[in-house]
Amino acid sequence: MADEDLERPVVSRNGTQLPAYTKTYYFKQLIDHTNPSLGTFSQRYWHTYEFYEPGGPIILSTPGEVDASGYTSYLTNSTLNGRIAQELNGSTIVLEHRFFGSSNPYDDLSVSSLRVHTVQQAINDLAYFAQHVQLPMPGGDAVQPGNAPWVLMGGSYAGALTSYTMANATDVFYAAYASSAVVQPIVNFWGYFEPIRQSMPANCSADIAAVIAHVDTVLTANVSADVLALKKTFGLDGLAHNDDFAAALQQPLYSWQSLQPDSGPGQAFYKFCDALEVKNGVGAPAEGWGLDYALATWGAYWVNTYFAQICGHDDDETCLGTYDTSSIFWTEDYTPNAARSWDWLTCTQFGFDFTGAPINQPTIASRVVTPAWTERQCGYRFPGAWGSSADVAAPNAGALLAAYSGWNTTTSRLIFANGQRDPWREATVAADGATNAGSTAQPHLLSDGFHCSDLLVREGAASAKVKAVQDQAVEIMKGWIAEWAPSA
Length: 488
Description:
This protein has an eight-stranded mixed sheet, with helices on both faces. Strands 1-2 form a two-stranded antiparallel sheet. β9 and β10 form a beta hairpin. The protein contains 18 helices and twelve strands. The chain has two domains: 266 residues, Alpha/Beta hydrolase fold, catalytic domain (Rossmann fold); 203 residues, no CATH class. The chain is of the alpha/beta class.
């Protein structure tokens, strides 16, 4: 749906003119659910009752770690949220997550302020909102849980939050849908690159793996002249630290996710692969061109095209270096700053450090990059958060797993949906190592999609398997909502 359409007044199915989808509302949310005496902050939300009829579900979602004002399309039937609302006579809500956008309990992102930025506080936000909001619609003061079936939906981190909330706030949300839900907190998250390696063109994968193996050999031997020559191949001889250089080579791989599902199959990613694999108009065979050609062409691509795209006019160290502790970048605590707010959650709870694969696994990311590379930066960003020493700046992923069960949640009326080509797949219930196969009460739906593909109706039009997941989800929700009975 085009932005201009979101800003126009909405006409309900009975002909009533409603506010535009972009109309912003505010809810008084508790700053700290363990200490209500600290007061409240204004949490933004967006809402429509375009398709609502009494008895229909209230469908709540949060986009998670972003400014939610850009996600008002999730009120509409261009998304699975809106399609479910349309077919089940529901109302849709988008709620902004604390510490993102304009929903900030405090006016800075200091360590002191971020103490109330936890997964559990976010779970409590969702529950408290559902229990206390008076929605701006007829009868909106009488649709709290117990009076109406509430459905919680989310994707990626918000998908994990959906699963965690269903496990933790068991009497609030009747049913839920979690897309690409990263429920399994993993510190050494080398699995991020596995779906990319498995799904990308074989020739590109082979040549990237060959280059990375060479990079790791040179960096591990650490012969100064050889290391300098290697860095010069990529025009990165200004990077002083070898792990920064190794981490920089991960950058082209991230475009596999960043253009999914919004722009079709990763144009930036495939431009990178084409630079390596197309020679004189001819594509490489499945085994690639081999190390020498791949190294030279990848280096030329960095020097002539890619570095300027990601770094602009910055030098190597300014753009890609991570060791300058004097840089104000680390502790800029203004709001909003979505990157810093998300870093707090990964540094303290989730982990998700993007590393090279174990030695017995093929890898397209350097093994020189370890969790220590990320955790050092966590210490720079949030000094004092782990005590007096940055050396202990490690996420407590174990506590998160123990609290909400990760892959092994037994929650009922919770749909998990995943895409086989999602780089986050290995943190979801669809991971190769996950043993939870799902059940009738907890369906696990799998398509050939990417990250959160199933939440967008247009992705169903592009893939029959994504469409099948969407259709199945709607039918499951219809059955569950038909069984709901008020308890209030």
